[in-house]
User: Which sequence fits this backbone?
């Protein structure tokens, strides 16, 4: 049976299932220098977004060659040097199906928050202010939602937005997808020009950098709303702030940041920004589904 490090926590029921299967679980977060020593005695490591599995950690694990499996408890694997690990005989898996609904619901929730000033009125009322006249919002129905990327999470977001009466358009690296006639495939440029709301659903590519920067903001409608529950770095935060201050963006909703925890005070104190601390997959249901996927991965790999 395997010795498994659970570096960033996991569903308790799934953890108990693994223990019942005979695996040894160590549920402990280590900072990188200590982790480089600890990793040498584990067969597998389970991470979320806090722990980074970079080349230096993989090299440390290779000293004993005991580590055989890295599992990302979530969708994105940009905190793992996947190719480097795989080339050295370490399998990398994620749990792509488990958190799609929860992230989609958060994206929709942020759209409501921006449209009806929920993010800021909740703060000002706690300060004793009654700013009723300042918070004349808009309805989502009838607005155009542009989805950048059209994977599982984007499709779940599209389904919910369509039910709310929004017109959904999308752009995708691999082109139009069959079976989604309720939504319209468009070019990136047309999406930026036509959307009232824009929601990102793409990974971060450190070689390409931000997908949305100053050039892309300039193509957008005046008064557009931007939602990023995807990955920190896909939106240039400096360009985002400039767009907010100029009025190009009416408001933005951000769950993920270039650096986490974020230290961008200009961003997290901006009155036209709705903020959450990277909680896209943080629902009881999603964590239970992620746990179930992890159990299946470990069972298939080690047994």
Assistant:
């Amino acid at each position: 049976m395997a010795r498994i490090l659970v570096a960033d926590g996991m569903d308790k029921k799934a953890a108990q299932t693994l223990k019942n299967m005979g695996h040894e679980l160590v549920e402990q977060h280590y900072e990188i220098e200590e982790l480089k020593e600890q990793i040498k005695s584990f067969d597998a490591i389970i991470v979320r977004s806090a722990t980074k599995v970079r080349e230096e950690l993989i090299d440390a694990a290779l000293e004993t060659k005991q580590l055989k499996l890295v599992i990302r408890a979530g969708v994105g694997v940009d905190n793992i040097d996947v190719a480097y690990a795989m080339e050295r005989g370490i399998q990398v898996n994620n749990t792509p199906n488990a958190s799609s609904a929860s992230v989609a619901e958060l994206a929709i929730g942020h759209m409501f928050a921006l449209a009806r000033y929920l993010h800021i009125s909740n703060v000002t009322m706690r300060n004793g202010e009654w700013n009723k006249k300042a918070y004349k919002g808009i309805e989502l129905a009838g607005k155009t939602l542009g989805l950048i990327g059209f994977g599982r999470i984007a499709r779940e977001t599209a389904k919910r937005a369509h039910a709310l009466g929004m017109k959904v358009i999308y752009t995708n690296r691999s082109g139009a997808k069959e079976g989604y006639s309720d939504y319209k495939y468009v070019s990136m440029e047309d999406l930026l020009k036509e959307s009232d709301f824009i929601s990102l659903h793409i990974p971060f590519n450190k070689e390409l950098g931000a997908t949305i920067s100053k050039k892309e903001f300039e193509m957008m409608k005046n008064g557009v709303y931007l939602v990023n529950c995807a990955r920190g770095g896909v939106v240039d935060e400096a360009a985002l702030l400039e767009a907010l201050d100029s009025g190009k963006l009416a408001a933005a909703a951000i769950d993920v940041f270039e650096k986490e925890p974020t230290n961008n005070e200009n961003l997290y104190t901006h009155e036209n920004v709705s903020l959450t601390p990277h909680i896209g997959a943080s629902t009881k249901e999603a964590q239970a589904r992620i746990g179930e996927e992890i159990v299946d991965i470990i069972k298939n790999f080690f047994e």
